[in-house]
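LAB NOTEBOOK - FOLDING QUEUE
OPERATOR: T.R.
BATCH SIZE: 2
PURPOSE: Compare the predicted structure-token outputs for two unrelated chains run back to back under identical settings.
PRIORITY: normal
REVIEWER: second-year student, initials M.K.

ITEM 1
FIELD SEQUENCE / FIELD STRUCTURE:
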Amino acid sequence: MPLDPVDYHGEDEFFLCWDGTLRIELNGRESVVLNAGGIFVAPRGLMQRPVCDGTAHAS
């Protein structure tokens, strides 16, 4: 199922979760869940949507 709204970049995108929990929903793939200290690199061109159900700080 296509994601809406989505985030799309022409380059790899780096995620770092400082605290809390961040879920990154990926188009056509299983979601990635990041807890404090977790990292994920979304490959260039992969449609994704960062989601937080509570409070989280990420960059």
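ITEM 2
FIELD SEQUENCE / FIELD STRUCTURE:
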Amino acid sequence: MTRRPLVSLTLCLLCVAASTPGETADEAVFELQEISVFDLDAATRAQSGFAAGQFHVCSDVPEPAVVYPEFTSQKVIYGRAVLGVFPGDNTNASVHVFAVDAVGGSDAAFDLLYFDANADMDLTNDPPVRRRDDPPPGAILGYPGVRQEICFEAVAVEFDFGPGDRRPLEMMPRLVIGEQDDYTTLWLVTTKARRGQIQVAGHACEVLLGHSRRITGWLQQPATALYLSPQVTASWLGSDRLGAMHSIDGVLYRFSATPAGDRLAVAPYRGDWGTLKVSPPRRSVFGGNMRGSLIGPQANVAVGGYARDGSPAPADRCRLPVGDYFPAHLTVTLAGMRLVLSDNYHSDGKPRDSDKQTACGIRIRKDEIFTLDLSRKPKVLFASPAADQRLMLGQELLVKAVLVYPDLDVMIRGMAAKPQAELSGHRRWPIAALLAMGVLGMAASRKYKVLILLPVGAVVGIALFIACLVLLEVLSPPATYHDVVPVVSITRSDGRTVASGTMPFG
């Protein structure tokens, strides 16, 4: 990107403040102006995702338990949109079914949308929405592999605007049809965003506040996208949200916004802290380390130490704001093995289960230590097939399996290991030092008839053993890790192999 990029303000720790901005002694409040997301320049639209919206996969199969109107054509597209889902919390989510029809008949283009704005599973009491003949230029995505994009007139869905107050939020539906008609999606785009100039710890920044590929409600929500330019520190997964505490010059800052997004507040974080640590592997002198990020309903946090560029560096423990989290992307290194963890978004028999409540199993409490213990053996979860699925003779079986830690409900997204020869070589020198000192101790005790030299030699040998381990850890070149690719075999009850092949993690 040769133009000045839109980037998220990145940090080493983040936390959310859900309160409405109101200026205090250490809080600064800035005014933001309303803009159309379609008026943003092409680079900003692409990088922010504001004009893309939240997408929903369509089908030619009607949704169950829905009241549909009488359609004109025989090629109706069905689907449902789940809005208001927070990371780790879908208790306030609303389900909006929809159907797209072609008034001109089965050979005509889709031009009429039925959208369940009031979320009552009845499309007969919602007015149909017609196709727009003149969508704004910024409303067309122009993605490769797309045959047609159809924009419709705006719909409005009510969300919480404050205590006892619900107000409609405007969004534009866009139907995207693939080149082969094999993949159709409906995108909902909130049409307005906010832009302004702010000061953060003496740094002047331009800010953009809006919905980036996820609609959680009005703009005060922690999952609202917050982009600051220019870049202050490094970025990591989850650092571009309103629910963020930014470490700048050693001070942690939080952000909050009004529901309409017309005011943005910046203030130092004054909350409580806890500690996250990695449990050392069994029979290992050294503990593990971790780096990455966690996400929760009220906070996103970067995990690790501080690198020079501000990105998370590997650390065996770190101090975090109190809250409940799940891993967005967490790399954990333990005794020659490197694991990449994320939230588990699959369920038994349901790949990418959109109805699943994300578990926030990492619970940070005030002045307490939460230990990330990965010493237990992970379990296999079959996203496909379901446990009770039955097949007809000759029917194809699709198998999708993932490795999970059930107690945390996290998924292994990747695995790498050091070569065994490298590990064996590193073990030789400490063991040789221990054996050498033992032999020398025994020889000296025989020659000088001083038995005390035997335990002394043993103690010195143990000391050299530990010293060799430390020196190897410090002086060794960077470890070489090789990806571990699972090989899965499906066998009959009599042991015969039906199918075998690799199955990537995640």
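REVIEWER COMMENT (ITEM 2): Confidence is low (pLDDT under 50) at residues 1-20, 422-427.
FOLLOW-UP: none requested
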